[in-house]
Design a protein that fits this description.
Helix content: 55-70%
Number of helices: 8
Distance between the termini: 92 Å
Radius of gyration: 36 Å
Number of strands: 3
Strand content: 5-15%
Shape: globular
């Protein structure tokens, strides 16, 4: 309690306190107006930024939802509108009958999705094995015959001589291959798969997917499997031809 209030008569009303007077010049009014304008501008800018953030979040959510639908088997429609990524040519853009066009889009989409998943699978397996994806791919190619010359492996993969030498160096250091001079031609280096090491560290990683492939094959008749094998043989040649084309174009550019 202040001294003035302590000495006042309780029965008498306290004297009215004068209102504080505002002092200042016209410049203060202008400053207040400018501050108000700045506040309003800042508020508008903040609202605009918030709106942009919300729009970006909606766009990101939309893209994520589209990707989730695209990767769920059977959840995506493979009609003309299902050609989600704008490639230069879409099967649906031709003059095929609607049913045929839809089938061609479904076929091309399935190939793209399977190819992408195989690349991701290879990278994940390489990470688990402890080598890089290129070295794992070379090891896979080498496993078909068990031995190849360095030149043959370079041609099969499309890698340069220097690159394939680095691959062989790393695989040899990790114990997956050995190399020695060809006894009939000392200029050639023969690379041989170290089977025990490959089975122990590589085949074991792919064993679950191999079992899934075998289970999947049981759903098809012998004639259907022959058709699938023939298809993959033809697709292998398509990939080989285009691998050569891409490597040639890369050297020419």
């Amino acid at each position: 309690m202040s001294g003035d209030l302590a000495g006042a008569d309780p029965g008498q009303p306290a004297p009215a306190q004068p209102e504080p007077t505002r002092q200042g010049s016209g410049h203060d009014g202008k400053g207040q107006g400018a501050a108000t304008a700045e506040d309003a501008g800042a508020g508008a800018a903040g609202a605009e930024a918030a709106g942009q953030d919300r729009a970006q979040q909606r766009d990101a959510g939309h893209v994520a939802a589209m990707q989730e639908r695209a990767w769920k088997g059977g959840a995506v429609q493979h009609g003309p509108a299902g050609w989600d990524v704008p490639w230069p040519e879409s099967p649906a853009a031709g003059e095929e009958a609607p049913g045929r066009a839809d089938l061609e889009v479904a076929f091309a989409t399935a190939m793209r999705r399977t190819g992408a998943l195989m690349q991701l699978m290879g990278q994940a397996a390489a990470d688990q094995i402890g080598i890089n994806a290129t070295d794992l791919n070379c090891l896979n190619i080498l496993s078909f015959s068990g031995h190849m010359t360095a030149g043959e492996l370079a041609r099969a993969t499309g890698l340069t001589t220097a690159s394939i030498t680095g691959v062989i160096d790393r695989l040899e250091e990790a114990g997956y291959v050995t190399r020695e001079r060809d006894p009939h031609d000392r200029r050639r280096v023969v690379v041989t798969l170290s089977l025990d090491q490959a089975i122990r560290n590589v085949a074991s990683v792919f064993l679950p997917v191999m079992r899934d492939w075998r289970e999947l094959a049981t759903r098809y008749s012998d004639d259907e499997l022959r058709l699938i094998v023939d298809f993959y043989a033809r697709m292998e040649q398509v990939f080989r031809n285009n691998l050569i084309r891409l490597r040639t174009e890369g050297r020419d550019s």
